[in-house]
Write a structure and sequence with these properties.
With about 450 residues, the chain is α/β, with parallel strands linked by helices. Helix content is about 35%, strand content about 25%. The strands form five sheets. A six-stranded parallel β-sheet has the order 2-1-3-4-5-6, with helices on both faces. A five-stranded mixed beta barrel has the order 15-16-17-19-18. It binds S-adenosyl-L-homocysteine (SAH), iron/sulfur cluster (SF4) and FE3-S4 cluster. The site of iron/sulfur cluster has 10 residues, from helix 5.
């Protein structure tokens, strides 16, 4: 039996695509391997969102040259967002000749044909579709966990934030038909799934490309009625489209988890405008205020970019001010990274690297104590945890997530994995909680 190894970079969208690739290879009779040294087929599912992500891929691809020399039968494939870019494909073709198959984010369903073509010709196979293709509805996925699953509800993005490559790698926004989403989730529930995370670059605009009048809140209501599903999450919301109707859903839908990931990117109106985010800091704070009033125990997380072109010390202070006002539970922060082909790449007032790093560190110093204080508030309470796994370095310690998406460690038996249990929180760190099952 041939063995395959998949290395995934980037966001949940890519993780889920890798699950689809795994399903495709399983149905071709391949077997998964977690050790790339023993694999006959290696796939890199790449991310183009920041330069650092691309550099990591190139570094790893370089290492595979040796492996290929030792095992000439090894087949190497590269797919994902980087492969949607012609300039990067050219670099791969010229400098990384050990790569045998290149395919794009829209072409996963064609993998079996591409492998056959490569086996027959022995020549590099390239299949990248730059258009917005019809949504491939019948591609199944090899879910990593049976009790929690990602579900795509839409693909692509129409927002063109000026720093972002995603609209170029994932194409225009298109929503899946509700029936198809609902039937996928019903199937998952029948197979023991308790938690679904709905995926889209901007889930709040779900439904805009459908012929009928059906929006994200309608979808949430329908999913809330599916027996067996206990928790509903979604990623990601864009503040410009977050409706009062969605906020109302947090109050009325018992399965919708008390967590919202709402990327702010910057606290300065000047920078937000230059990023083409289409909201102001005031709009954002108003939404946060409404959400907190509707769901007092909601956890709020965000994405922040430091050092966008033109960001002055005052602009950055406004970002810190938003952090203090919102009091985020946690945040992903990024150093602005130039992406060729985006508008911001051409802006001439790029921020010096040293200043970016210094601001980045100040941002962590502001975020971390607030995250810790929020976590400490949970000490002494009983929280519901979906048990996910055993801890990496201790078999007797389990981990799982609260409804608010916080990671909890606690002693317990492996047989609890996949179950919803109550845990009493006893101590808190900046990024994790510890407790005992009750
Ligand atoms: N669709 C999601 C985000 C997708 S990319 C949304 O709009 O929220 C994930 C995050 O990467 C973004 O929120 C942004 O903070 C960051 N990011 C995107 N492009 C970047 C760039 N060029 N430099 C640094 N960070 C970037
Ligand atoms: Fe990128 Fe903006 Fe689209 Fe998110 S909303 S994927 S940041 S362009
Ligand atoms: Fe995701 Fe990276 Fe592509 S963040 S959409 S894998 S560019």
């Amino acid at each position: 039996m041939k063995k395959y190894f998949i290395q995934t970079y980037g966001c949940q969208m890519n993780e889920h695509d890798s699950e689809k690739i795994a399903w495709t290879l399983d149905s071709m009779g391949y077997e998964i391997s977690y050790n790339r040294e023993e694999a006959d087929f290696i796939i890199f599912n790449t991310c183009a969102v920041r330069k650092s992500a691309e550099e990591r891929v190139f570094g790893q691809l370089g290492e595979l040259k040796d492996l290929k020399r030792r095992n000439p039968n090894l087949v190497l494939a590269v797919c994902g967002c980087m492969m949607q870019r012609e300039d990067i494909r050219d670099v791969v073709l010229k400098k990384y000749r050990q790569v045998d198959i290149i395919f794009g984010t829209n072409n996963i369903n064609k993998l079996p044909q591409l492998i056959t073509r490569y086996n027959e010709t022995g020549k590099t196979v390239i299949d990248v579709d730059e258009d917005n293709r019809e949504i491939e509805e019948n591609l199944d996925a090899n879910r990593t966990y049976s009790y929690k699953s990602y579900v795509n509800i839409m693909y692509g993005c129409n927002n063109f934030c000026t720093y972002c490559i995603v609209p170029y790698t994932r194409g225009r926004e298109r929503s899946r038909e509700p029936e198809s989403i609902i039937s996928e989730i019903k199937d998952l529930a029948l197979n023991g799934c308790k938690e679904v995370t709905l995926l889209g670059q901007n889930v709040n605009s779900y439904g805009k490309t459908l012929e009928r009048n059906y929006n994200f809140s309608d979808l949430l209501k329908d999913i809330n009625n599916i027996d067996g599903i206990e928790r509903i999450r979604f990623m990601t919301s864009h503040p410009k489209d977050l409706s009062d109707e969605l906020i109302e859903c947090y109050k009325t839908l018992d399965k919708l988890c008390n967590h919202v990931h709402l990327p702010i990117q910057s606290g300065s109106n000047k920078i937000l405008k230059s990023m083409n985010r289409k909201y102001t800091r005031e709009d954002y704070l108003l939404i946060i205020d409404k959400i907190k009033k509707a769901v007092p125990d909601i956890a709020i997380t965000t994405d922040i970019i430091v050092g966008f072109p033109g960001e002055t010390e005052d602009d950055f202070e406004e970002t810190l001010d938003i952090v203090r006002k919102v009091r985020y539970d946690s945040a992903f922060s990024f150093l602005y990274s130039i992406r060729e082909g985006t508008k911001a790449a051409k802006m001439d007032d790029q921020v010096d690297d040293k200043i970016k790093h210094e601001r980045f560190n100040r941002l962590q110093d502001t975020l971390n104590p607030i995250g810790l204080e929020n976590n400490e508030k949970l000490i002494g309470t009983n929280v519901e945890v979906l048990v996910e796994d055993v801890s990496k370095n201790n078999e007797l310690v389990l981990n799982g997530r609260t409804r608010s998406s916080k990671l909890v460690h606690f002693p317990g038996d492996k047989r609890l994995i996949g179950k919803l249990i109550k845990v009493r929180i006893e101590s808190a760190k900046t990024f994790t909680l510890e407790g005992t099952a009750v």
